[in-house]
Amino acid sequence: MLHGAFLVSQAVVPALKETSGSIVNIASISGLRASTLRVACGMSKAALIHLTKQQAAEPGEYGIRANCVCRRPVRTTRAMAVHSPEIIQADHDAIPLNRYGAEMELAETIVFLCSSKASYVTGQVLAADGRFDVTGVGLPALRT
Question: Are 83 and 74 in contact (CB under 8 A)?
């Protein structure tokens, strides 16, 4: 994932220089905080977060902005198929908003960061996670 994000951003920077475009990387809350059984995921997402900050620093002189959205599970068919009812309940209990995010909520966050309304926002990490990064705990149901 990190390698792909790096290569794609390198490929699009010349075009973005012409338009003062925006890069939005999608990471995970695992890049901001440690969690049960998330070593590889956490390390790669933390690296993606740092790549975002480098992307904001280096081509910023051309008006290119780079930001990162760190998400928690989003209520998709796949997420509901892989997460047991116990994991879903434990996850909801750890999220102050007490639910998974919706696909549209994540999409709207990304659209905002790409829009002119965020024209002075760059190098930022936005946790779209129902505030799990602040209060979340390890999920006991994942340990079994």
Answer: no
**pLDDT tens-place values along the chain, 144 residues long:** 789 999 999 999 999 999 889 999 999 988 988 877 778 989 999 999 999 999 999 988 899 999 999 998 888 888 888 888 888 887 777 788 888 889 999 999 999 999 999 999 999 999 998 887 777 665 555 545
Instruction: Return phi, psi of residue 127, to 5°.
Output: -85, 110
pTM: 0.87
Name, in order, each residue with C-beta under 8 angstroms of 22's C-beta and a sequence gap of 6 or more: 16, 64, 65, 66, 67, 113, 114, 118
- Contact, 137 vs 94, CB < 8 A? yes
| The CATH number of domain 2-6+15-134, selected from 3.30.420.10, 3.40.50.720, 3.40.50.880, 3.40.710.10 | 3.40.50.720
The 10 Å Cβ neighbour count of residue 128 is 18
- Length, in residues, of the chain: 144
Give 128's contacts (C-beta < 8 A, 6+ positions apart). 69, 70, 71, 72, 101, 105, 106, 109
Where do the structural domains in the chain lie, given as residue ranges?
A: 2-6+15-134
